[in-house]
Design a protein that fits this description.
The structure is a single chain. By secondary structure, this protein is α/β, with parallel strands linked by helices. It folds into 4 domains: about 130 residues, Response regulator (Rossmann fold, 3-Layer(aba) Sandwich); about 160 residues, Reverse transcriptase/Diguanylate cyclase domain (Alpha-Beta Plaits), CATH 3.30.70; about 100 residues; about 90 residues, Arc Repressor Mutant, subunit A, CATH 1.10.10.60. Helix content is about 60%, strand content about 10%. The strands form 2 sheets. Strands 2-1-3-4-5 form a 5-stranded parallel β-sheet, with helices on both faces. The chain has a 5-stranded mixed β-sheet with strand order 7-8-6-9-10, with helices on both faces. A hairpin with a 2-residue loop joins strand 7 and strand 8. The longest helix is centred in the last third of the chain and has 41 residues. The chain is elongated, with a radius of gyration of 32 Å.
């Protein structure tokens, strides 16, 4: 069972979270609750939970401070943050932390369950990964390639802090010798809507051939691992071979670029971290390579990218604050044009920043996308957010990156419009169904409003907008249509038909019938009966 700790200074919120969730079904249990950040931190230290749900505002040690300190205790702790709209700007800071879920007050069951399912999946995948690692270590001879292949991925996900030479060999089978160590990333960008799996398989095969034949022979040790839309590598080579290795990486990139349209219009970039002389510095080299590969967003694809420049003067908080204020109108009115304008201003302001880095642009776009989704109050959909993040990761230019965010905004606005339209149509559907079932009775507008739960004035306006005619006119039409059917298909007297369709006055019925059909009931029967 996964252990969960809940922290909120409102006792009722802690109780609500406990009651809303079927913990057994999720394979989880509430290990403890805390009313402030200090208590929560002590619970994290004592219980080693897998998941922490915490309010962003608490007395003493607040939610963000708690996250920072709890991560120092347990780096794999998954966290869901609770906030209200009033604290939303404050919650933006949490985007700088690796927070796995956001819950807006009042907390909804569906959003809570979805968040816990997502975090639980991450916990179990990590546990499975650890289990796999243990198995591979026990059978390293048979699985040496798989074991070494985990090294670049673990470096990428920052699972290694300062590995020693001995650790690299004992845990990954990577025998690092004296010389230089360097992380590198071959990035593949493409349009997922048109790119084929067969094309990716062909790229992978070709890249493996080139790396195996041109790069690895120059190294004392080396490993490459295909992961997501990239190939991650760790190289160990003699310092005297530095220039040769760099040329080989450049040549690999050139060969792939020369054939990119054969593969289906993919773009390639190669990024390298610093060449270091101590294994303990390998994580730094991978971080540099990861930041460097994002520079293609600024410098363009088809390049060998070196460790990124120093951070620019981009004030992402200020830009996001301005973008967030624009959402106040957009979220309520679902104004796509204003949303486009707010995004264009965000793009323009970012592009004006001297020396802006690709990783800064990527982080800005991701934060804006998550913010937009939260402000629109969309039901949390992990697949939706994951798809957006993956789409951003496949953008090799600033234009494509912000186009990805633009498409994400527009799709969410359209989805929210559809949702609101569905919610608006539902009571009209209920009203029409009620009329069809009770047209023979002396029903009134007030009767239908009681069924739908709306005031008469609001319902009348909404009914006319959705149905295209007023309530009274619709009711009259239903009654006349039924009377026409009875006149055609039965021999019932007109007076009896009048009563069956909800009229008590035969003269009023006949006049209404003639006004709509152009014939009185007797004439209609003689012509169509």
């Amino acid at each position: 069972m996964l252990k969960v700790v809940i922290a909120d200074d409102e006792v009722r919120v802690c109780r609500l979270i406990q009651k809303l969730v079927d913990w057994d079904a999720l394979g989880m249990e509430v290990a403890g609750t805390a009313s402030n950040g200090f208590e929560a931190l002590e619970l994290v230290k004592a219980l080693s939970p897998d998941i922490l749900i915490t309010d962003i505002r608490m007395p003493g040690c607040d939610g963000l401070e708690l996250i920072e300190k709890a991560r120092q205790v347990s780096e794999n702790l998954e966290i869901a943050l609770i906030s209200g709209y009033a604290q939303f700007e404050y919650a933006q800071t949490a985007m700088l932390f690796d927070v796995g879920g956001y819950l807006l007050k009042p907390i909804k069951k569906d959003a809570l369950m979805s968040t816990l399912e997502k975090l639980g999946k991450k916990c179990r995948e990590r546990a499975d990964s650890t289990s796999i690692m243990e198995h591979l270590r026990q059978d390293s001879d048979a699985s040496h390639g798989l074991l070494m292949g985990r090294l670049p991925v673990d470096l990428l996900h920052e699972r290694l802090e300062a590995p020693s030479r001995e650790q690299l060999f004992s845990e990954y089978g990577f025998r690092a010798r004296d010389g230089l160590l360097q992380a590198c990333i071959l990035k593949i960008d493409y349009n997922p809507e048109v790119f084929r799996d067969t094309a990716m398989a062909a790229i992978r095969k070709k890249a493996d051939e080139i790396l195996d034949s041109d790069v690895l022979p120059l190294c004392l040790a080396g490993v490459f691992r295909f992961h997501g839309s990239s190939i991650y590598g760790v190289l160990n080579y003699e310092a005297a071979n530095s220039d040769q290795v760099r040329r080989a990486l450049r040549q690999c990139l050139n060969q792939l670029e020369a054939q990119k349209y054969i593969f289906g219009a993919a773009d390639f970039s190669f990024a390298v971290g610093s060449a270091v002389d101590a294994p303990e510095q390998l994580p730094l080299s991978m971080r540099e390579a990861r930041d460097a590969v994002a520079e293609r967003i600024v410098e363009g694809t088809g390049r060998l990218l070196e460790p990124a420049r120093p951070a620019s003067q981009l004030d992402s908080r200020k830009l996001l604050d301005k973008y967030n204020r624009a959402m106040d109108h957009i979220a309520g009115a679902l104004d796509a044009e204003s949303a486009d304008k707010a995004l264009e201003e965000l793009r323009y302001e970012a592009s004006r920043t001297p020396g802006i880095r690709g990783c800064e642009l990527l982080d800005l776009a991701l934060a804006a996308g998550r913010m937009f989704s939260i402000r629109l109050n969309m039901k949390e959909d992990p697949a939706l957010i994951r798809g957006f993040e993956e789409g951003c990761g496949l953008c090799g230019s600033m234009e494509k990156l912000f186009d990805c965010l633009l498409g994400f905004q527009r799709r969410q606005i359209e989805a929210m419009r559809d949702q609101r339209e569905s919610e608006a149509i539902r009571p009209i559907r209920t009203a029409k169904q009620y009329i069809q079932q009770h047209y023979s009775e002396p029903i009134s507008l007030e009767d239908v409003c009681a069924v739908t739960g709306f005031s008469a004035s609001y319902f009348s306006a909404m009914f006319k907008k959705e149905a295209g005619e007023g309530f009274s006119k619709y009711l009259t039409r239903v009654r006349v249509e039924r009377a026409k059917a009875l006149l055609q298909d039965t021999g019932l007297p007109v007076a009896e038909i009048c009563a069956l369709v909800g009229y008590s006055d035969i003269k009023h019925f006949s006049g209404t019938f003639k006004k709509i059909t152009g014939l009185n009931p007797g004439q209609y029967r003689r012509l169509y009966g």
